[in-house]
Amino acid sequence: MNSYVALGFAIVAEVIATTALKASDSFTRLLPSMLAVACYAVSFYLLTITLRTVPTGIAYAIWSGLGIVLITLISFVVFQQTIDLPGLLGMGLIIAGVAVINVFSRSAGH
């Protein structure tokens, strides 16, 4: 499996896990709790595949940056949580940072 494909699936699994964690209500609801634990395990496994060829700092920057943006969007849609202008600007900077890493960093392993 391509390292960046594994990273993409790791991000998706982590976002599902975090969404389920919120829905678990502090691990008091069984199904969301089980989904959170399972998806975190899948996410970390896929991250280990990524780390075979992608430098740790680069992989983690992409994983955490895109995860932050995706979970914020899902929280807005699913849990009706709001985000203010500084939050939107911050996420824009995160996206810009991930883009800079992927386009310009020689250590990104392209």
UniProtKB/TrEMBL annotation:
Gene Ontology annotations for the cellular component aspect, listed alphabetically: plasma membrane
The annotated topology with respect to the bilayer is: Multi-pass membrane protein
Transmembrane domains' residue ranges: 33-51, 58-79, 85-104
InterPro entries per record = EmrE-like (IPR037185), Small_drug/metabolite_transptr (IPR000390), Small_multidrug_res (IPR045324)
Q: What is this protein called?
A: SMR family transporter
Keywords (A to Z) from UniProt: Cell membrane, Membrane, Transmembrane, Transmembrane helix, Transport
Superkingdom, taxonomy of origin: Bacteria
From the UniProt record, which GO molecular function terms apply?
A: amino-acid betaine transmembrane transporter activity; antiporter activity; choline transmembrane transporter activity
Per the record's keyword annotation, is Cytoplasm included, yes or no? no
Pfam families (UniProt xref):
Multi_Drug_Res
One GO term of the biological process aspect: glycine betaine transport
